[in-house]
Design a protein that fits this description.
Layout lengths: L1 H7 L2 H7 L4 H20 L3 H7 L4 H8 L7 H10 L5 H14 L14 H12 E8 L10 H11 L5 H14 L10 E7 H5 L5 H14 L5 E6 L13 E6 L7 E5 L4 E4 L2 H17 L6 H11 L8
Parallel strand pairs: 1-2, 2-3
Antiparallel strand pairs: 1-4, 4-5, 5-6
Helix pairs in contact: 1-3, 2-7, 3-7, 3-8, 4-5, 6-7, 9-10, 12-14
Length: 308
C-alpha cells in the first residue's frame, strides 16, 4: 500500500524536474514522504531507527527535514517500508542526493547563523511572503547603506569584513524578487520604521525612494501603517508568513529573535498569525496610497534634497 501511494504522488517527480528552494525544502519534502511511508506501514520511529543503525531521534530529525540523509539510510528505510519498485526507489534516492547538495547561501557560512539558513531556503521556495515590520524596513527591500546600518546595530562586535559579508548576503537574498516566477511579497511597514534615521539622511532618502520603486513591481505589495491610525493588531513584533506551491509544505510562520528564531507550522498557530496579518493589512493604508505616503515621509523628514 505504501509503495503504491508513493508512486501515485507526483510531488517527488515534480521536484526532481523543477527543484525550487534548494536543499532546505527538498529535505522537508523528503522527510514528509518518509514519515507517510512509515506511518502507512504502522512502523514506529524506534523500529525505523534500528533499521538504519540509529535512534528514534534521528528518524524524527530526518522526517522534519532538519538533517540531510545518507543514500544508504534512505535505501534501507525504503526496503523496510515496502518500496520495492526500482523507479520509485531511484526517485527517492535522487531526491536525497539533491537534498544533500549545498545551497548558494552556504558560501556565507562564516556570517550566516544556522537558524537563519532555514529561512533563506524557505524564502527561495515560497510563492507568497507576507511580512510585518515595526522597527526596520524588511530585509528583502533594504538598500545596501540601510542594510549596513541595521547590521552594525544588531552586530556591534562584527568586523568590517563581517559586516560587508552580511550586506552582500542580504543583497543576494533580494535576487529572488527579480527572477522569473518570483514570489509575491506583501509587506506591511510601520511608519516608525521610515522615520528612524538608519545610516543618516542620504541613506534614508535612497531607502525610501527604493521602496517607492519596488512598490511598482507587479509582485510587490507594500502598505504603510501611519502614526495616525493609533493602535494596530498585536503581532508581538515582526512576523513573516511563508506560503508554498509544494503541497507537502504547510504555511510557516517565522519569528526572529536576537540570536535565534522560531518556525511555527501547526495549523492553529499559523491561523492565529494569519488573522493578525489580515487585520494589519485591513488597517494599514492600501497599496495604492503607498507612493503618496512615502513622498509625505520624505517631506516630513526633510529628505527631499537631491543626492548631490
Amino acid at each position: 500500500m505504501a509503495s503504491a501511494q508513493a508512486g501515485r504522488n507526483p510531488s517527488v517527480r515534480d521536484l526532481l524536474s523543477h527543484p525550487r528552494g534548494g536543499p532546505t525544502v527538498l529535505r522537508i519534502v523528503l522527510g514528509t514522504h518518509l514519515r507517510r511511508l512509515r506511518e502507512g506501514c504502522g512502523i514506529t520511529r524506534e523500529a525505523a531507527g534500528e533499521s538504519i543503525r540509529g535512534s528514534h531521534a534521528k528518524i524524527s530529525r530526518l522526517e522534519l527535514g532538519r538533517v540531510s540523509a545518507k543514500e544508504r539510510d534512505i535505501a534501507d528505510l525504503l526496503t523496510l517500508y515496502g518500496v520495492t519498485d526500482e523507479t520509485q526507489r531511484e526517485q527517492f534516492l535522487a531526491l536525497a542526493r539533491q537534498a544533500s547538495s549545498p545551497g548558494w547561501w552556504q558560501k556565507y557560512g562564516d556570517v550566516l547563523p544556522s537558524w537563519f539558513e532555514t529561512m533563506i531556503g524557505l524564502e527561495e521556495a515560497a510563492s507568497i511572503i507576507r511580512t510585518y515590520e515595526v522597527q526596520f524596513v524588511p530585509g528583502l527591500l533594504q538598500t545596501p547603506d540601510y542594510a549596513r546600518a541595521c547590521i552594525r546595530l544588531g552586530n556591534p562586535r562584527a568586523t568590517d569584513r563581517q559586516v560587508d559579508r552580511r550586506v552582500e548576503l542580504r543583497m543576494r537574498r533580494q535576487d529572488l524578487l527579480l527572477r522569473e516566477h518570483a514570489p509575491k511579497l506583501w509587506a506591511v511597514v510601520d511608519e516608525a520604521a521610515l522615520t528612524r534615521p538608519m545610516g543618516g539622511p542620504a541613506a534614508m532618502r535612497t531607502q525610501i525612494r527604493h521602496l517607492r520603486e519596488m512598490a511598482e513591481r507587479p509582485n510587490v505589495t507594500l502598505q504603510i501603517a501611519p502614526f495616525r491610525l493609533g493602535g494596530l493588531a498585536a503581532a508581538g513584533g515582526p512576523v513573516t508568513i511563508l506560503r508554498f506551491l509544494e503541497p507537502d509544505l504547510p504555511d510557516i510562520v517565522y519569528l526572529e529573535q536576537l540570536n535565534s528564531a522560531l518556525y511555527l507550522d501547526k495549523r492553529e498557530d499559523v491561523e492565529d498569525y494569519l488573522a493578525v496579518m489580515d487585520s494589519l493589512c485591513a488597517t494599514a493604508e492600501p497599496h495604492g496610497r503607498t507612493p503618496k505616503t512615502l513622498d509625505r515621509v520624505l517631506v516630513s523628514q526633510g529628505l527631499c534634497e537631491t543626492d548631490g
